[in-house]
Amino acid sequence: MVCLGNICRSPLAEGILREKIKKNGLDWTVDSAGTNGFHTGEAPHRFSQKIASQHGIDISHQRARNFIASDFEQYDKIYAMASDVLHEMKQIGKNKFDASKTALLLNEIKPGCNLDVTDPWYGPEAGYQEVFEIIEKACEAIVIKYATHQKQLSTVHL
Ligand code: 4NP
Question: Among the CATH numbers 2.60.40.10, 3.40.50.720, 3.40.50.1000, 3.40.50.2300, which is that of 2-157?
Fold first, then answer.
């Protein structure tokens, strides 16, 4: 899960998906990162922590890290919160950039629409609520899509 600062949107996406992974007994690993490096080492924004906590999700232990080219080797699927983030991921990834592993998060709920998760950084607290809700829907869609796919594959292997 990748955004610009790794303090507002992607830490929420990481926390929300991790919770769903746990609830569904999946063996997936989830992480998040930022492309601009301005907040490396910082905890998530207090409003991201607050809205997550209101939904029973603790993201206080997460720390911002930089998105790096080798993330394209490390992870199977990399979601960008917005088009500007995707552009930065291409710049950072250079020859390791893998379009087949990359998607805009909201295309999981509005395929082909190329919508951004609005950056709440410059706005009021209410923005974090909206961001939580849309990311939650997208993460639910990811679990339905890939957990079902994983189950089908394991059935085939039996
Ligand atoms: P995020 O929000 O990408 O959702 O973490 C931002 C946080 C900080 C900045 C930009 C976006 N910044 O420029 O410092």
Answer: 3.40.50.2300
